[in-house]
Structures are given as structure tokens and as C-alpha cells.
Amino acid sequence: MNGGRRGNGGTGRGGVPLIDGIDKVTGRARYTADLERADGLVGRIFRSPVSHGEIIRLDVSKARALEGVAAAITSDDCPRTYGVLPVAMNEYPLARERVRYRGEPLAAIAAIDAETAERALKLVEFEVRELPAYYSSEDARAPGATLLHDNKPGNLEREVHNEFGDVGQGFAAADLVREASFSCAEVNHAQIEPHAAFADYDPLTGRLTVQSVSQVIYYLHLMLARCLEMDASQIRVIKPFVGGGFGARVEVLNFEIITALLARAAGGKVMMLLTREETFLTHRARPQTDVKLKLGLRRDGRITACACEVVQRGGAYAGYGIVTILYAGSLLQGIYDIPAVKYDGYRVYTNLPPCGAMRGHGSVDTRHAFECLLDRMARELKLDPFAVRRANLLQAPTRTLNDLMVNSYGLGECLERVERASRWTERIGRLPAGKGLGMACSHYVSGAAKPIHWTGEPHAVVNLRIDFDGGVTALTGAADIGQGSSTMVAIAVAETLGISLERVRVVAADSAITPKDNGAYSSRITFMVGNAAIDAARSLKAVLIAAAARKLEARPDDIECVGEIFQVGAGGQSSLSFAEVVKAALAERGPITVSGAFTCPPEAQGGKHRGGAVGSTMGFSYAAQVVEVTVDETTAAISVDKVWAALDCGRAINPLAVEGQIEGSIWMGMGQALSEETRYADGLPLHASLLEYRVPTSAESPPIEVQIVESHDPYGPFGAKEASEGALAGFPPALINAVANAIGIDLSELPATADRVMEALVERRRRQRLGDARRAAS
Amino acid sequence: MERLRSVKRLLKVQVNGRWREDAVADNLLLVDYLRDVARLTGTKTGCDGGECGACTVLVDGRAVPACLTLATRCDGCAVETIEGLVVQGRPSRLQRAFHDKLGTQCGFCTPGMVMAAEALLRRNPRPSDRDIRIALSGNLCRCTGYVKIIESVRSASEMAS
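The joint structure predicted for all components is written out below.
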């Protein structure tokens, strides 16, 4: 609980480029697939051709016997489960006894080259007794359905039921109560780097090094130790450059463990490069979600109650599922002041690739439903969408009904900014035919306040070292996956120490060197690691000031730092350069290493009710956005002309990076809203390529005008909160609201593809004709 | 399969200004030649063939996906990769702009994106935003929403004139 009062954080208002940006633009940056592997083996995975079945026979002996094959493994080589949540580790790296989705890994090969490995795959012998398979939540939940996991009746991974406040009373007090259903397709992260892992097992020392595309090398480390039954001290995990994550890599993935198992079995190095299709099969993204939502609204715009039922088609294994279904309910709150909220959530096991966490984890589809229905009801009551949101703003600091802390709250200012920038008031209702404006709000956590693995340790630790060269090296386990977290650490350290950014070097995400970090998820790094970096820098500064004081024969309190000059008093008759201070400090104690930490206090860790920790955070980001669309009623194509967005990130430590994150997250929301969808036919993915899975290209992406709102969070580092996820959830509803404004049709399914829009247009025409005919007849 | 692999021919190709001769299989893709034989790993593989543009390189000045190009088809050609834009250790104006304007986040699409933009600026030194959007539409980026990529290319084109 520190960091709020001190320091500017901000390095001038433009921000700075990424400290590793030059490596990326010159092609010098080494990603996992780029690692030197001259004497390495090639890994390949044999995957299930069926969606659900009992394994009768799985024999890799012929594959193993093929010349050039160094290892062929099955679950006999790893009879241990893994998973991200300690309570739900129900998955084997290679399926054991049962397969539960098409494409699930069954066996793996390491061979001298790709051709040999692929020939070996063809020699794997596999017999299966097929079981009934379910590809929708409804089918999986039907009475009598075969269970995917014997301990989960009804194929329900988790049910959540809670009610805060009195919903019945809330609806009774409303002037308008409406209920609507929404369906949101399953989407995928589609990070541009396909999955890859490189494992090096040294049989002489018994040590294992794994380099992987992970966002969570600490969890990977734990699961490698568990699955390979190795002492964790004999394992080293390194994150090279990572080509995007968005949640795809926030849990340990089967191929990472498989690669390590292969390397050990082969006694060498194995490079596993998954194809794009396999990357889609690995999945772990946002589930197909059905939302049934009921809201009560008064004529003055006040929301009186909210009742929400969510069903998530979770796929075959647990993954983060429990957390996702809890987030969907808990983040109904924390954005508006709602006196009563009821939530019923169902996470369902199905015979499809397992879902997981994706940017805006759990919050996106329910936020979509909420902002769409709120807009429809506002229209019915002839209220302005901005006015309705304003009527329900929170007052920070406060606690929500479900015991989430809201310590800073810039949503009101976000609304003003986008209302003005988009010229909403002048333009709404006055646009030409086919054009429309829509708006929506959203929010997200700045790090889950309660860690998944409750170890009692601080939630983030950063070490700083300084030696004879006068360079400051920040050691952090935080995984920079392109979001710029290493740059953020460098800025936090430089700002706190008052030294130039160039003096700071960041070494990140190598378990042999850097302190453990929980990883890049739930937008935790800026808030938690940023605070830890400031804490470490303050400790280092105290050491340096003490050394300067001794050298200058002054009291530490009298030392003033002006940039890298340490002087006595404001006048500064006697002063020392940074190099001289470092020399003085080292003379006392040799090379210096200090540690800084950050922990979210218990009161920030959510309510006492079951699952109450999910959604808890020290600081919510808030966003509002306006989307302008053109809908062509002939082709039913929607084009997004422009987006205006404002996000309250507390304080922009690096405004350039904050803008980049907001633009990227809004655009990712656009993909989900317009075109992205993974579909399956009997469990066979139909969209497992970037041609079929339609990520928007530069040609159809709009200009996005971003405004940064700074509410100065009392606990954030320099007042900062997250900026990478909060804006995403607002885009789909803002788009659907804009389409409604343009053509008067309320779409209830995502994505709003031309097919779906056309269907709605045809249906409307049919109804109009029917109405005309009836009128003519009467 | 075995037989196919044994068919190799001599490839003479200029890579980033330097002529090379390598015996390569007929079916070797340019992207694999660059990454595995020439060890220029700046060029990325992001998909299973022609989906994402991360492997874009210039062949005789034209932007092509190296994953849809056979290495042997480049016999006698000049191939330029992201590494080739760096002259005496200094990034090109375009690379600099991608760095300064945050046209790169995770960086994985960046080499292909920069090469596609390089081809554009060579044939059209002052492109409109629309021109840029069209020229880069075969290159997917998942981080930036393209906003700062377009800014980077525009900024480089303005610096040039």
C-alpha cells in the first residue's frame, strides 16, 4: 500500500518507446522458434481423431523403432495431472484412459528432423471406443448425458448462485423491467506467434531448461516439477521474446510439458513448433456464452436491479473455467451503483478444446449484454444513453455489494470526454440513413488481489542491483509479452531514483536469475510489479543517500537529489555525481542488491462469500467509448468509421504504451463484435486458420481516437491502474448500439456478421410485409 | 518422402546484398531457407501458409510471403529481409519510425509489416492513409489495432520528403 503519494511517473507527457523496441524492429529479437537448435530434435504431437472416447490401445512401439526417432511417449511417461487452479487439475499432458476433444494430445515424438517425426506419427497405433460427444452447453447438460468427468454431475464444472441486495424489491421499484437473451460466439486470442517450446534436458546433470511462449513462467515451473516429478531446483524456465498472449498463455499448456517430457526421454534438446491449426486447437480462449439478463430501470435513469444468468460452454477441461464463470458475475458490479444484483452462472464441460482466459477475462460477454439491454431500455424511456450511465455512477472510495474495493473512479470524466470528442449531442439522431452512433462503458481489474496460489508471499517482488559500473539492473519475473511491462519497470525505477532511463537495464522472466512473479495476467503487472519496483528503488535510493551523506559529511535528510547529482541542501555547495555516490556506497558494502515488494492487503481481497475473491482488485480501470458505423442494407455489411474512447488508467506511466494498449484492446473487441468466431462441426474446428478465423485487417480497421483519463489511484504506482483490458468489453455493445441507431435493429448475437445482419433485415421486411398485408385485409 | 528430399539443386541468391550459394531441396520454402539455412530468423512464421504476412520479404523489390515462395524460385534474385534494412548497425528510417511511434508491441508481425511498408514506400513515397491500409492488409497484427502502424509508416514517409 504505497506508491501513491510520491513521484511523477510520466517521463514527460509523450511517453517513451519500448526499451526492447529496437530489437523488434530490426529482427534481432529472438522468439522461442528462433532459438539456436543445431543439435536439437524436432517434436511432434499425435492428436485424437475423435471427440470423446475410451482409449483401448495406444502403442508407440513401432514409432519408437523408426530410425531417427529419439523418443516416443504417451501418458505412461506422465501419469500426473496438471492445471492452473489447485482445485481443478483434471488434465493430463497426454490423454490418459479417455480423450475428451478432437485434437487432444495422445502421444508425442522427438526425431532428428520433421519428416522423420511425421512419419513416426503415422506409425502410432490407436484404438478407441467412442462415447457420446457434446458440442453445446445444452446437450452436455441434458438429463442422462454421459459425464466427461465422473465427479461432475450434469457436466457442470461449476455453478454459481448469489444475490446481493433484494432483486425482487428492485424490480418492483422500477418503471421499466426488461429481459433479453444474448449469445456470444467463442473467440480465440489469435496472437500472431504460434505456440512453441524448446526444452533442453541434460542427462549428465539431470537438469532441465525450458524456454517457452509463456505468460506465466512460475506456473510452468511448478507444473514441470509436478509432471516430471523433478525437484524444482533442477529446472530453469526462461521466457524469450513472446509474440503476444492476450491470455492464451496464462496457464501452462500441454505442449510445454510434452516438450519437456520428450527432451528427458530423448536425453537432449527438443524444439516443438505448433502449427497455426494446433495453436487454435490448444485454444484456452473466451467461451461461447449465453446470457439471459433482466434489468429494472426508473424514469430518471436509475438502475434498480439486475438479474443475470450466464452459461459458458467451457470445453473439455477445467483450466481457468471456475474463475471465468465467477468473473462473469462479480464484474456485473464495480462499474455502476446498482442496489441489487443476482447472478446464476453455469460452467459446462463439452467435448471441445478447453476454454480459458482471454483479454477482459469473464467480463466481456456479460458487459456486452448489460450495455446493450441498458441502451434498449433507455430508448424505450426516451433517455439519452449518456444520461442513463451518469445516473448510476459510483462515488469512490466505496465498496460494492459484493465487497469489491473501488478506490478511484474516472468513469464520469471518460463519459464527458467521449461525448465531447464524438460530438454526440449535436450528431445523435441527425446522421444520414445507414449511419449510426453507439456508446458503452466497461471496466477491468488491475490485478487479481488474491493470487491463485496462496503462498503467503508478497504478490510481487522486484530486485535491483547496482555495481561498479553504475548501471542499475532491475530483475523481475514479470513476463513482457509485448505490452511493455519491462519498459514500465525501467521507468518506475528511473523515476523513483531520479536517474536517466538509459542507466536502467531490465532482466526479466528467467527463473535462475529473476525473482518469482505470478505472471502477465489480470492486468496485474503495472499495479503490482510497478509498486514493487518503486519500493525497491526507494530502498536503493536510501542506500545511495546514506552513502552520499557520509561522503559529504551531512545528514541524509539534508541530501537533495537533482537528477543524478546528490548535493547538500538546495544551494548545493558540495555535491557528488551519481558515479561518485555509487563508488562511496560500494566502498561500504560491495555490490548492492535490494529488494522491493508489494502485497494487496486482505481488505482488498474480496468478500467472504464463496468465490468472493474473483473480481477483487486494488484498482478498477474504467472506459467509455463511442462507435460510429455505416450499415449497408443491401449487403448487410457493417463498417466501423471511427471510434472515440477514453480510459481511466489512474495515471499513465508511459502514455505512448497506454495509448497502444487501449487502441489494441478496442480493436480486439471489434474483431469479436464483427467477424471473429471459432466454429466446430462434430468437434472438428472449421476456423483453425487465420483465413477462416477472421481477424480484422488494416483495410477494415477504423481510426481510434484515444483519450487518457487520470483519476490518480491512491494505491497505484504513481497513481496508475491497468490500461490493457478495460476498454475491450465496451466495443461490442457500442457497436451493436450503433447498428441499432443506424438501422433500428437490435442484434442479440455476436459476431454481427453480414449473415446475421441480413437475417435480421429479412426478418424485419417479412414482418413489415405481414403487417402491411394485415392492415390491407382489415 | 525420402526420395523427394534427396532432390537438391544449387541456389544462387543475393540475400541482403550478399550472394550465397546453397544446395537446397526443390520443395524448400523461402521462409525456411532464410530461417534455417541462412539463419536469418528475423523473418517469422506465423501461420500454416499465406494467412498472416509475418514472413513478408522483398524479392527483387516486391513484397512476397516467403511461406508461399519456393526458395529455388528465387534463383538469381535479390532477397531482402528485415535484417537487411539495418545499414552499418543503424536501423532504417522506417524501422526507427516503428520504434518511436510504437508501431511494434509484441514485435512478431513487425518484420513482415516493415517489409510490406518498405515495398510500399519504394513505389509510393507519399502514400495516403488509405494506401497504407491497403498495402498492409495482407499483414495481420494482433496488438496495435494498426493505429500506430499506420502512424509509423506515415511518419517515415514524411521524414523522407
